Amino acid sequence: MTARIIDGNALSAQVRGEIAGRAAALTARGVQPCLAVILVGGDPASAVYVRNKVAGCEKAGIRSLRFDYPESATQDEVMARLAELNADPAVHGILVQLPLPKHLDETAVLEAIDIKKDVDGFHAENVGRLSQGREAFIPCTPHGVMKMLESTGTPVQGAEAVVIGRSNIVGKPMAMLLTNAGATVTVCHSKTKDLAFHTRRADILVAAIGKPRFVTGDMVKPGATVIDVGINRLQDGPDAGKLCGDVDFESAKAVAGAITPVPGGVGPMTITMLLENTVISAERAARACGK
Ligand SMILES: Nc1nc(=O)c2c([nH]1)NC[C@@H]1CN(c3ccc(C(=O)N[C@@H](CCC(=O)O)C(=O)O)cc3)C=[N+]21
Fold first, then answer.
1. Predicted pLDDT at 136
2. Distance of alpha carbon 236 from alpha carbon 166, whole angstroms
3. Does the structural domain 140-267 have CATH classification 3.40.50.720?
4. Which residues bind NADP(+) (predicted)?
């Protein structure tokens, strides 16, 4: 058996077409959706992601504002910028690219974003709301994963779902969304004993660990849907310089029922959901001012 490939670029193109239509309708009513992106420091991977986000905005008719700070930026500088963006009615979404340099207080920065503009869904109040099923904004990567599951017709209700990774930005919200959708969810991580015991039971397996090709075919249940959230740049070996996921694609593909590739899988869907959250925020703002 060889798995069906879940094409994140194709699904993104479809969803982004719909988002562009909503953005155009808002712009015609005098409210062009606008996303502000703050990038601190010169991490090359972050620069690529931010460039992709800004390009995605442009193509969908969403205005974007970019604020680049040097590695040496102070907490006060970033907080002052957030205060200004919070107060600006023309800005509908604010994203602070993570990770931040170590001398900055990430929690304080995320908490300073107006939750009505928290299109990443990382503010503690949004996290709490997600756990109660009354979210303001759903975090983009896990939301993109749910859309991909939906697109393949993978049943979530009653399914055994295993999430590897317990980060605040992927693993935990992913587990919460799957739980809200009726899956039986197991969260595995670096301290899990006998990881393969858990993964082999998974109808839905989500890998978000940051270790290249860590999940191999022998860890996958035949017919499972495998979602690879990892984005790793290989350092050495024959594929040095290439991107790969947390899943060993070739061996997993031979066992799974459906699988996402890297690149061209979850990454583009993350950006798509960011664009959607920005449009949702702008639609709410337009409604609030009667437009
Ligand atoms: N506040 C914040 N929000 C985020 O959503 C956020 C973040 N910080 N920090 C880092 C992660 C990572 N992330 C990606 C976005 C797009 C691709 C993407 O476009 N990937 C392409 C390839 C990119 C490449 O060529 O390197 C693909 O998979 O096909 C990947 C990763 C968003 N993140």
1. 81
2. 27
3. yes
4. 165-167, 231
CB distance 251 to 218 below 8 Å: yes
pLDDT tens column, 138-171: 999 999 999 999 999 999 999 999 999 999 999 9
pLDDT tens-place string over residues 227-249: 999 999 998 889 998 999 999 99
Q: What is the ipTM of this complex?
A: 0.96
**Does this chain's domain 30-117 share its CATH topology with 140-267?**
yes
CATH fold of 30-117 reads Rossmann fold (3.40.50)
- pLDDT tens digit string along 107-125? 999 999 999 999 999 999 9
Interatomic CA distance for residues 286 and 29, integer angstroms: 8
Closest residue by CA, ligand 1 atom 16:
267
Q: pLDDT tens for residues 40-76? A: 999 999 999 999 999 999 999 999 999 999 999 999 9
Indicate the domain borders of the chain: 30-117, 140-267
Q: Is 267 in the pocket of ligand 1 (CB under 6 A)?
A: yes
- The number of residues in the chain equals 291
Which residue shows structure tokens 């437009």? Answer: 291
Q: Which residue of the set 118, 120, 203, 246 is catalytic? A: 120
Residues 6 or more apart whose CB falls under 8 angstroms from that of 224 comprise 202, 203, 204, 205, 255, 256, 257
HSE toward the beta carbon, residue 261, CA cutoff 13 A: 12
pLDDT tens digits, one per residue of 17-29:
999 999 999 999 9
Give 278 Cα–ligand 1 centroid separation in angstroms: 16
Annotation says 97 is catalytic = yes
- DSSP label of 101: P
User: 104-135 burial string, b = 16+ CB within 10 Å, else e?
Assistant: beeeebbebbeebbbbbbbbeebbebbeeeeb
3-state secondary structure at position 126: helix
